[in-house]
Amino acid sequence: MRRLSRKKALNLVKELDAFPKVPESYVETSASGGTVSLIAFTAMALLAFFEFFVYRDTWMSYEYEVDKDYTSKLRINIDVTVAMRCQFVGADVLDLAETMVASDGLQYEPVVFDLTPQQRIWHRTLMLIQNRLREEHALQDILFKTLLKGAPTALPPREVSPTQSPNACRIHGHLYVNKVAGNFHITVGKAIPHPRGHAHLAALVSHETYNFSHRVDHLSFGEELPGIINPLDGTEKVCIDHNQMFQYFITIVPTKLKTYKISADTHQYSVTERERVINHAAGSHGVSGIFMKYDISSLMVTVTEQHMPFWQFLVRVCGIIGGIFSTTGMLHGLVGFCVDIVCCRLKLGVYKPKEDGILDEHTSQTPLLTEANEQE
Questions:
Q1: Pick from 269, 234, 306: which is nearest to 58 by CA?
Q2: Cα separation of 54 and 307, whole Å?
Q3: DSSP 3-state assignment of 136?
Q4: For the residues of 183-207, what is the DSSP string, one character each?
Q5: What's the predicted TM-score (pTM) here?
Q6: 171 contact partners, CB below 8 Å, separation of at least 6
Q7: For 203-212, how does the pLDDT look when each residue is reduced to its tens digit (9 = 90+)?
Q8: What beta strand segments (E) does 83-206 contain?
Q9: Rg (CA), the chain
Q10: Helix H or strand E encompassing 180
Q11: Which of 289, 69, 81, 89 is nearest to 189 (CA)?
Q12: Which range (55-59, 178-182, 286-290) has the least confidence?
C-alpha cells in the first residue's frame, strides 16, 4: 500500500511539471548551433555594454508652474563696453512703476574699445558657440549638466597694457530691481532724479562725440552661474551714424536649476533687437543710446537632472538577454527547417540515396543462398 501511494504521489508530481522536455537530439552539439551561440553571446555583450552607457547618462526634465514669488528683487548682472568716454554716458534703470533704481552697483572703467588679437579670437569662438546654440537647442542641456566645469564666459584681460589712451567706457556690476517690467538704458549724460521720472544731462555733450558702438560682454539675470552662455553675451554693434538707437526687447523666465552638481535660482531670457538712426527731419524720433527693455514671464521653469534607476537598468538588461535567446532560437530553427526542405527536394545530405554498389552486393548474395538450399 505504501509503495502504491508513493507511486501515485510521484505520478501526480510529474503531471504538475509544466516545463516541456526536449528530445535528446536538441542538446547535441553542432557547428551551426555553436555559430549561432557565438553570435548570440556577442550581441548580448555589445548591447549590454551600450546599455550601461545609457544607464550612466542623464537627461534634463522641464516642469512649468506659475511664479508666485513677486516680493523678491531681481538681480541684473551687466558688463557692457561703450565707445564713448565715461564722463559722457550714464546708465540707470526705470521700471514700469516709474521707479528709478540707483546705479550705485555699477562701475565706470575707462578702457580701449578695440580688442587685442587674443581677445578677438575669444570673441569669435563665443560667437560660433552662440550660433550653434541658436541652431541646436539641445546643447543648452549640456551646458546645464557641465556647470562649474565650463570655461568662464567673461572677456579675458589684455595681455599687455594699451599704448593709446582710453576711448571707451566699460560699465560693469550688478543692480537689484523690482520684479516688474523695466528699462535699463545707457545714454548721453549722467542721470538725475526728476519728480516725473528722471532726466539725463546731455546738453553739454556735443552731438559729434556721440558713438554708441558697444559690445555686450555679459548680461544675465538672477544668480550668476559659471559656464552658462546667455543670448546677448558677445554681441557687438558698430554705429553707422552719430545719432543711433539700439533696442533690445528681453523676456525673462524665472528658472530653478537642480542638477547633481548645483542647485540654484536663476533666470533664462530670450531677446529680439532693433536698431535705427535718429533723424527728426525724416520722422525717426527718439533718443540716441542703448535701451534694454525687459519683461518678466509669469511662468517659472524647473529644470531637473534625472537618472535611470538601477532596477530599470537590470530589467532592460534581462530583456536584452531573453530577447536575443528567443530570437536566435527561432531563427536557428527556421533556417534548419528551410535547409531540411531544400535538402529533401534536391536529395542532398542525409536525404541522398544509397550507392548502386551496395545494392549489387546484396543481389549477388541471393543466388548463393538458393543453391545451398537446393543441395540440402
A1: 306
A2: 10
A3: coil
A4: EEEEEES-EEEETTEEEE--TTS-G
A5: 0.69
A6: 78, 79, 80, 81, 82, 89, 91, 106, 107, 108, 109, 186
A7: 677 778 888 9
A8: 89-95, 100-101, 106-111, 168-178, 182-188, 191-194, 197-200
A9: 41
A10: none
A11: 89
A12: 55-59
